[in-house]
Amino acid sequence: DSYSEDILEYSKRKNIKCIGYSLGDDKFIKRIKLGPREFLWMIHHAEKVVTNSYHCVLFSLIFHKKFVLYPRFNAEDRTNENTRFDQLNYYFDLSDKIPKSLFLDFAYDFNIFEEKLEPLRRDSIDYIDKIIND
Asked: Residues 111-128: what's their mean pLDDT?
């Protein structure tokens, strides 16, 4: 796939190691199997995250990591799961700030994410408190 080639080119240009997760080839310096703890550790300690995963994008935002989202699904396919990314764009104003290529600058301000997350987090906590206490 094209993003594998982009990742390899980027790592060569920047002279950095690249660790691949769930990739179907052995082009990467290191490819490992991950449990949830290792998955989160890798995102938290990454310089930049390249993904096609909704959950990886969420944790990249939470850990304030620069990321590039390569689409996993064809937009015309009625069974695609892209609406999850549309929801993130809606809630966190991501659409025109996340680069479409690994070679472009990351322009998203994580303070925007924190400001927009806080009322959502508060609503969730209030909802859970209400359920527990009623």
From this structure: 96
